[in-house]
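Data card: per-record layout.
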Amino acid sequence: MGTTDEIMQHHHMICLNCEKTLPIRFCPMSETDVPGGFRVVKHKFEVFGYCGTCAEAPAQSSSGRES
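The structure for this 67-residue chain is written out next.
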């Protein structure tokens, strides 16, 4: 089981099309370049893109109908 910090953190990848949410299984905070003098007290990471299903779906026009 993870530490208290790992349990409380919620980092996700979110599909912009279907809104499927996938967990990020590690905390990228240690890789973040925090400027001097800035004290981080809380954080969350959200990465937006397209899941495998939506990325493979045929493109449709903005009206929702194919041309």
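Known properties of this structure: The helical segments are 4-8, 52-56. Residues 1-7, 61-67 have pLDDT under 50 and may be disordered.

See the next section for split statistics.
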